Amino acid sequence: MRVVQYDRFGPPEVLRVNEVPAPRPGPGEVLVEVHAASVDAGEIAFRSGRMRRISRAPFPRGTGGDFAGRVSATGPGVHAWQAGDAVWGLMPHFAFGSLADYVSVPQERLARAPKNLSLVEAAALPVSGTTALTALTALTDKAHLAPGERLLIRGATGGVGSVAVQLGKALGARVTALASARNLGWVTALGADEALDYRTARPADLGRFDVVVDVVGTDLGSYRARLSRRGRMVALAFDTDRMLTSILGSGLRAAVSPRRFKLFSNNPSADRIGELTRLTEAGSIRPVIDSIFPMSGIAEAHGRLEAGGVRGKYVIDMEREHA
Question: May I ask the CATH class of domain 132-262?
Answer without folding.
Answer: alpha beta
